[in-house]
Amino acid sequence: MTSGNGSASFSLFSRVAAAACQGVFLILLARTANLAQFGIYSTTCAIGAILIGLLSAGLPNRALQITEPKSSIGGSYLAAAIVLSATAFLATLLASATSLGSLSWIMVSAAAFTAAELQNNIAQSYLYGLKKNKEADIFTLLRRALPLAAIAAASVLRPTWDKFAIISGCFTLAWLAGAIRFLGQYNFKSLHKNALRGGSNYWLINIWTMLQQLDVILINAFLGSHLSGLYASAVRLASPVHIITSLIASRLVPNLRHAESSSERQAIWEKTYKPLRLALLLLAATSPALFWIAPMLFNADASSQNFVYVATFCAALLSLLCQILSACLYTKNQEAAVQRLTRLSVFTGLVIVSIGSYAGSFTVAALGILCSQLILAWSLTKSNGTNRWTGKAEASS
């Protein structure tokens, strides 16, 4: 029992530390670059995120259900991670250079981040599915700490060096580390059969979720790189919340999958959900402070537009809730419902962003992401109440 508590404590520590590293890294990056440069970086990351949704085949969610080490299906997932992440790198470079102008280290760093995220997320889900939680947690911490250490050291020792070139190397190292870790386990022969076929609902969920990144692109197109940089800095400041999300989901899904009865599954769910909901309410209550704190972190001027930091943080908290509610529905084999509800909420949010951006209203555009998550949280909560636990959960392909 002590060992289990120690493992859970380490997981919590590593994820909180990783979230802190990512948050500080983004703040340092935004402070060393101007808002326009950060806007280009974030827009390229948004393009990469959309490509992750299109290329990931739902594998980050599907890999959580692998329980047998060195299985043929698991090997195919790992092989797909290599092929798809390399494709994502090239596609992100091509798309960003075509839409944003000539190629630069800013775009290369964002493309390298895209490739590392896709490959590492699949690999980590695979480890969590195998219950190799400590290894996955250490990897999470290292991949977030390395870019922070590099950019912090460069800021002090080599302030004239291009920070985007430095982090490009860090993200490439993260990709290589994930690739080398699983040498000998790749199954390229059955890649198409096991990894790229099936799992259509998981794939569509990833696509709809990543299409939310169009908000940055729309704001950049209609309102300019300065406001897109402001919006992106707010989104990136809130993004470490998602690291905590993956901690909970990566433990919750396998535990629910391995539960032997509906009563055991319900007990696991209540133990996770009720404290989480209370914590989110407390965090949301403190979010107005970001209106004054966030601009100081990014060395920005005081402005009424800074409400965007509060809106995006609350949206991130709602997103965390949505991911956990979705994880619950996955174990009820209701991924089709998650896909449908995600599509509806993302579409609604993007319509609001489009209207606001086209009309020149940053206020309306910035509220799109919050409205999207409110709709999704409400609909997922309702769906979870409708779909009850049945017998032992079965893995979905």
Explain what this protein looks like in three dimensions.
With 397 residues, this protein is an all-alpha fold. The protein has one domain. It is 81% helix and 0% strand. It contains 17 helices and no strands. The protein has helices at residues 2-32, 35-55, 59-62, 72-100, 105-129, 133-157, 163-181, 191-196, 200-211, 214-223, 225-238, 241-258, 262-286, 290-297, 307-331, 335-358, 362-386. Helix 1 runs antiparallel to helix 12 and helix 4 (72-100) runs antiparallel to helix 5. It is globular. It starts with a helix and ends in an 11-residue tail after the last helix. Residues 391-397 have low confidence and may be disordered.
What is the topological layout?
Layout: H1 2-32, H2 35-55, H3 59-62, H4 72-100, H5 105-129, H6 133-157, H7 163-181, H8 191-196, H9 200-211, H10 214-223, H11 225-238, H12 241-258, H13 262-286, H14 290-297, H15 307-331, H16 335-358, H17 362-386
Helix pairs in contact: 1-6, 1-11, 1-12, 2-4, 2-5, 2-9, 2-10, 2-11, 4-5, 5-6, 5-7, 6-7, 9-16, 10-11, 10-16, 11-15, 12-13, 12-15, 13-15, 15-17, 16-17
Task: Give the structure's gist in a few sentences.
The protein has 397 residues and is mostly helical. The chain is 81% helix and 0% strand.
